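Why this split exists: single-chain examples teach little about how molecules sit against one another. For that reason, every record in the complexes split bundles all components of an assembly together and asks for one structure covering all of them. Below is a record exactly as it appears in the raw files.
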Amino acid sequence: MADDKSTTTPPSNNPYTQIHVVQSGDTLSKIAQKYYGDASLYTQIFQANRDVLSDPNKISPGQKLRIP
Amino acid sequence: MKKPSLWVLVMLAAVLVAACQNQRAPAEQAVAAAESALTNIRDMATRYAPDQLQAVEAQLNSAKDSLAKGDYKAVLAGMPALQSAINSLKDTATAKQQEVDAANAKAKDAWGPMSSDVPKMVDAIQSRVDILSKSHHLPKGVTKDSLAAAKSSVDSMKSAWGAAANAATSGDYNTAVSKGQAVRDQASQIMQSLGMKSG
């Protein structure tokens, strides 16, 4: 069932795309677990934030990430 | 009592006929004028005051019946009421049209931001539904039922939004905003059920 191929991602200026403010100790996997119930879907978040993330393992507290 | 002579009776009948004929032209002209006045406002009245139009048409038909029967006196006697009814119908329909035009102008203003916002809401939902469909487990607060409902709602929202957009294209902004608001409400509800914070 899991499939990491890209899905319809809302445009970056979509005000209805949920925003997550990175907290200390967060990882994309943890964030994916929180919003999708599945840590392996972290790539969805990474792909939606390529304009601010160059490495899925490097996120900083205070960063605002789009959660598609 | 002495009976009136024949020539007196003939003269009397002639006077009556002449008097009657004297009323014919004014009666015909009055009916024609009323019919013309009603024709001028019929389209507007049909749209904005159909019940009142029906009542006025009944009055006009009654006048035409009287005219056909040669009852010119009745035609002329009923004409002030008919003219008043036509004027009242025109006033009612004009007021209603202005009311609808004003509401449509207001709806047109509302349609602008709505036409931008609602598709974005639907896009955001579509995206979330697509991703959650790939998830091995659903996040806290999201159930299989709510996800299934969201999935089926995406298509219906797109369809309803298409109808709203078509109404706007045809200039019917009241309908467009009404339908658009229904989609917006549904989208808000779904976003909540999927744990998404809108806006």
